[in-house]
Amino acid sequence: MDPETAHHQVTGGLRKFNRIWGAKPLLKSIYTVDDPRLKKEVFGLTFKNPVGLAAGFDKNAEYIEDMAGLGFGFIEIGTVTPRPQPGNDKPRMFRLVPDEGLINRMGFNNQGADVAAGRLKKLKERKDIIIGGNIGKNKTTPNEEAVNDYIYCFNALFDYVDYFVVNVSSPNTPGLRDLQEKEPLKKILNTLQDLNHTKYTQKPILLKIAPDLTESQLDDIVEIVTGTGIAGVIATNTTISREGLKSDPSLVSEAGGVSGKPLTDRSTEVIRYLATRSNGAFPIIGVGGIHSAADAIGKLNAGASLVQLYTGFIYEGPALVSRICKGILKEM
Questions:
Q1: Do 41 and 232 contact (CB within 8 A), yes or no?
Q2: Can 170 be counted among the known catalytic residues?
Q3: Percent helix, strand and coil across the chain, each rounded to 5?
Q4: Does the keyword Flavoprotein apply (predicted)?
Q5: Mean pLDDT to the nearest integer, 7-24
Q6: What is the pTM of this model?
């Protein structure tokens, strides 16, 4: 089955299953690890465990309660843009089975910030699940006006999410990664921080970065994060590198970002570099190629405070969350 079709079939099936009487507590009993030792206090928020669902899985805030029932400590929606957009032409997701990875060039397909906000407003079982809002710009918005798109999404989602993620690192929106350069990035982050300070309460703002940045660019990231006073970094997004891939060359040559196991080591290197270079000045959420408890623990040991799953969750199944939580408890 086409990967994107499979995604919608499985998530839709999960939602239908959860409407059956007794289904939610059954899944919770199977997949959730409840242990107070897993709680983490990070950028002023209390996470019931450090394992989250990365952005991209639930772009439109449709499956928060369903995914929370599989044991996640937090859910990140998006990437959300101000206006709805269809994303890139299909097919736009490809399985690299021998590499246990994916290539995607989705292109921020989503129903828009207002639709996501409307769904979040109606959530019944918010309880102890932390929700992040990953925000980006529309494809047709010129980079010079990108800051306005981030402002729009920030205002639309502000009342309904616990933290924000500024996504300037997806390789699938033309020119987006240019916003990772020092001056445009400082403009976006400073503008959002100024807006944040006008609100009734402040929400943590994080920056999601690419794994393909050089050391000097990572040094700039450390300077920008500390200079703007944002809450932290998510490391990393997908990579444009194709180094070492074993899958069919016709698939490997598809445009888009690679996720999954090919990213494991590089994302951990970026986490370690940022944590060391900044002397632990800000929290890092580690994401990229987490397919086992050992992978997650490796990122935590490298300096991450929390971790997120996406491709590993697809390949390993929902039990991966509990395996990671149990693995963390064994290390204590």
A1: no
A2: yes
A3: 45, 20, 40
A4: yes
A5: 96
A6: 0.97
Is 60 annotated to bind a ligand? Reply is no
Confidence (pLDDT) at 128:
73
Query: 172 among the known binding-site residues?
Result: yes
User: In the numeric block, which tokens belong to residue 192?
Assistant: 């959002």
**21 within some domain:** no
What digits encode the pLDDT tens for the residues 89-120?
999 999 999 999 999 999 999 999 999 999 99
Distance CA 165, CA 305 (A): 16
The one-letter amino acid at 133: G
Task: Classify residue 183 by burial, with Cβ atoms within 10 Å: 0-12, 13-18, 19+.
Answer: exposed
Task: Determine, yes or no, domain membership for 224.
Answer: yes
Question: Over the chain, what is the mean pLDDT?
Answer: 96
Terminus-to-terminus CA distance in the chain, angstroms? 41
H runs (alpha helix) in the chain:
3-17, 23-31, 64-68, 113-121, 146-157, 182-196, 215-228, 249-252, 264-277, 293-302, 311-316, 319-331
73 annotated ligand-binding residue: no
Of the pLDDT bands very low, low, confident and very high (cuts 50, 70, 90), residue 126 is low
Residues 6 or more apart whose Cβ sits within 8 Å of residue 70: 27, 31, 32, 318, 321
CATH of residue 150's domain is 3.20.20.70
Taking only the tens place, the pLDDT of each residue in 208-224 is: 999 999 999 999 999 99
Task: Give the closest residue to 257 by CA, choosing from 225, 232, 289, 286.
Answer: 289
Q: How many domains does the chain have?
A: 1
Catalytic, out of 29, 169, 170, 259: 170
| Cα separation, 317 vs 236, whole angstroms | 21
Residue 256: give the domain boundaries: 3-8+26-331
| One-letter amino acid for residue 40 of the chain | K
Whether 16 is covered by a domain: the verdict is no
In a domain, 20, yes or no: no
